[in-house]
Specification:
Length: about 290
């Protein structure tokens, strides 16, 4: 059984530049499209349209709008930080770091640029530089929950789990309703062998974000480790409602059913696992074992 699906979910920074009174409009794609169409040489309109696209998952459109904003106004710091995030989505981490550095050259205390820089370094696998970027952000804004969270993720990459737990717990103290922080705290606690504590954090992550199937999947695996097989089955079933093509969840559901002697349910689950991933060796071996025992 594949034991734990540890996915680091990193927080990043997207920066609109507008007054509080405009906050209701800032994610309105139709509004900003109209503004950009009527005023094509206004960098703010391009930036805000790009931000709206980004938040809706239209990353290529967002990328082009952030570039347009910078073409119109190269000194626009928030557009550089937003462009850095778009580069991260594209997997162009060095370019993301370059944009963050350009933003910091224009505004040295722009802590959001350090946050995105930390994300790029984490994606590159460079924990030391990610820690340095988070530390720089925290010098400017000591209560920056997102930077504390990313700092904890970087410590996890280095195997420094106690430091990771301290950083992420501080992040949660500042922002208790931070599902990714609870998720990654659960991962660090699991690595330290603290199963019940890890379960508590994954449960909180899923409570805060009901479509957080990664947290529920990890919960299923930890319930199996705690010999709470019915809870594991319920967790895997919740995962599969959200992500029905996840072959490994079908496999693990089958194994949890088998541990409760529900052989027929186990066989059906293994068959589903192979339906979605014919190369799932664990599911194939498990199915053969069940078929031979019948």
């Amino acid at each position: 059984m594949k034991y734990l699906f540890l996915v680091f979910l990193i927080v990043c920074f997207l920066l609109p530049l507008g007054s509080v009174r405009n906050s209701i409009w800032e994610n309105d794609t139709a509004l900003w499209y109209d503004v950009a169409k009527k005023s094509p040489r206004k960098a703010r309109a391009q930036n805000m349209l790009g931000l709206s696209y980004f938040l809706k998952g239209f990353y290529n459109d967002a990328f082009l709008r952030f570039q347009n904003a910078l073409f119109l106004d190269p000194s626009r710091v928030n557009s550089r930080v937003n462009l850095s995030r778009a580069y991260i989505v594209r997997g162009e981490y060095d370019r993301a770091i370059e944009e963050c550095r350009k933003a910091l050259a224009l505004m040295p205390r722009y802590y959001g640029a350090y946050l995105n820089m930390s994300l790029a370094y984490i994606r590159k696998g460079n924990a030391d530089l990610a820690i340095e970027a988070c530390t720089s952000a925290l010098r400017i804004k000591p209560d920056f929950a997102e930077a504390l969270h990313n700092l904890g993720v970087a410590y996890q990459m280095k195997g420094a789990y106690q430091e990771a737990v301290r950083s992420i717990e501080e992040s949660i103290r500042i922002n208790p309703d931070f599902p990714d922080a609870h998720f990654n705290l659960g991962s660090a606690l699991y690595k330290m062998g603290l199963i019940s504590e890890a379960i508590r954090e994954y449960e909180q992550a899923f409570r805060l974000k009901p479509d957080y199937w990664e947290a529920e999947y990890n919960l299923g695996n930890l319930y199996v480790a705690a010999k709470e097989y019915q809870k594991a089955i319920s967790a895997y079933q919740a995962v599969l409602k959200l992500n029905p093509r996840f072959s490994q969840a079908w496999n693990n559901l089958g194994s949890a059913c088998l541990l409760l002697n529900r052989t027929d349910d186990a066989r059906k689950s293994y068959e589903q696992a192979l339906r979605y991933d014919p190369d799932n060796v664990q599911a194939r071996n498990n199915l053969e074992m069940v078929m031979n025992a019948e």
